[in-house]
C-alpha cells in the first residue's frame, strides 16, 4: 500500500512538472529577429526562415480560458479544442478550425452561443498561404 501511494505521488508530481516547464521562447526574447534595426542594449536573434507566402486574416472563436481547470475533465463541444499556452500557463478553448470568411466565424459563434457558450468571441489570426 505504501508503494502504491509513493507511485501515485511520483506520477502526480511528474505530470504537474511537465505542464509547468516552459519552452525557451517564453523567456524575454530578442527585440527583433534578423532586423537591421536594433534597440540599443538588446540582442538581435538570427533571422527566422522566410517563405514565399502571403499573410491572410483568419478568424477563430474562443469560448473559455482555463487557468486552474484541466480541459480533459470537462466535456466541451466537438467543434472545439483546448490549446495549452505554456508561457501564460493556461488553456484556451477555441474552435478547431479557423475561418477565412468572417461570416462563417460569426455563424459558428452564434451556434456556440445558442448551445450555452455565451462568452464566445471572435479572435483574429494571421495565416499564410
What does this structure look like?
The protein is an alpha+beta fold. The protein contains 2 helices and 6 strands; from the N terminus they run H-E-E-E-E-E-H-E. The strands form 2 sheets. It has a 4-stranded antiparallel beta sheet with strand order 4-5-3-6, with helices on one face. Strands 1-2 form a two-stranded parallel ribbon. The termini are far apart.
Helix and strand pattern: HEEEEEHE
Helix percentage: 10-25%
State the helix count.
2
Label the structural class: alpha+beta
Broad shape:
flat
Unreliable stretches? 4-9, 11-18
β-strand percent reads 25-35%
Number of E-state strands? 6
Largest β sheet strand count, sense and barrel closure: 4 strands, antiparallel
Distance between the termini: 57 Å
Read across the widest sheet, the strand sequence of neighbours is: 4-5-3-6
Mean of the pLDDT scores? 82
**What is the C-alpha radius of gyration, as a whole number of Å?**
20 Å
Give the topology, please.
Blueprint: H1 2-20, E1 32-33, E2 44-45, E3 55-66, E4 80-85, E5 90-95, H2 102-114, E6 121-128
Parallel strand pairs: 1-2
Antiparallel strand pairs: 3-5, 3-6, 4-5
Key traits:
alpha+beta
Summary of the model, kept short:
With 129 residues, the chain is of the alpha+beta class.
